[in-house]
Design a protein that fits this description.
Layout (H helix, E strand, L loop, with lengths): L1 E6 L4 H13 L3 E7 L19 E5 L5 H11 L3 E4 L6 H6 L2 H20 L4 E7 L23 H20 L3 E6 L1 E3 L8 H10 L4 E4 L5 E6 H14 L4 E5 L4 E3 H11 L7 E4 L14 H7 L7 H14 L1 H9 L1 H11 L2
Parallel strand pairs: 1-2, 1-4, 2-3, 4-5, 5-6, 6-10, 7-9, 8-12
Antiparallel strand pairs: 9-11
Helix pairs in contact: 1-7, 2-4, 4-5, 6-8, 11-12
Length: 337
Amino acid sequence: MKRILVTGGAGFIGSNFVRWILTEQPDCFIVNLDKLTYAGNLENLEGFLKHPNHIFVKADINDGKTVEEIIDKHKIQTIINFAAESHVDRSITGPKIFIETNVTGTLTLLQAACDKKIERFIQISTDEVYGQLGPTGKFTEQTPLSPNSPYSASKAAADLLVKAFGHTWGLNYSITRCSNNYGPFQFPEKMIPLMINNALNDKPLPVYGDGLHVRDWIHVEDHCKAIWKVLAEGKSGETYNIGSSCEKQNIEVVKTILKLLKKPESLITFVKDRPGHDKRYAMDSSKINSQLGWQSLINFEDGLKKTIDWYLQNKKWLSRITSGQYQQYYQQMYANR
């Protein structure tokens, strides 16, 4: 049985990964460590908290003692690091926490991994470490790192730390860099759930600048399957780009959401662009396609409809998240366990 420590497993991508693993990989035992900040929510794990192959631990990845105790107690073989502060806007207004979590926190995990001789370390990174593209071309694994926000700079720093631990101490690691995710359980500060929530409530949909910024979108389920492929078959010391070759202008995505919800485009409100807003991202995933046999399977139109349906069916979750009631809710859930 694979014994895995998943950090940040109550967040958006982490919780989807935990749910997928516990459903599709019965030979895996997961210890799920999450600090439960504003974007970490035990409701994201509802139905899986008491799974026999899952243990939740409320803790900070900067708590090296707790991390090492978990590794010893549960005989952890692999660490998958999802834990991160991830919102670019928040990193601009308050970058310090991004360094503390994304850089120092990753360092703490790496030190524990080496001290305890962990067999495998998977660092979940982002396409934003590459900076921005012009109107053509795609990011490859050889694209130089050129981050343009405190968030992406912190993730690039973490990636370099992982590589350094591999080179210096022989850590068996892989790094994954994925394009923009969407799907269930995403905190509604991110574009797609924010637009869905505002549209449902007939509120203005804020679109930065001219709305022509381009992102490469991937459904979170496809991303989770790619991470599993890297864990199971990826080579030590390698980086793998993950994307679905689905480039969309932000304004196109917003208009599609309004169309699917039968809401008027008059709800769109153009707002002042954020500082240093990267114009275009696009991922070349040919390496993971050819070497590991992974392909994205969910096309954007189907995935977006599926995502909107999920939010429509989970209005109570969305209401608690947006009102802040989830803080009290998950604390009560945790206390009762």
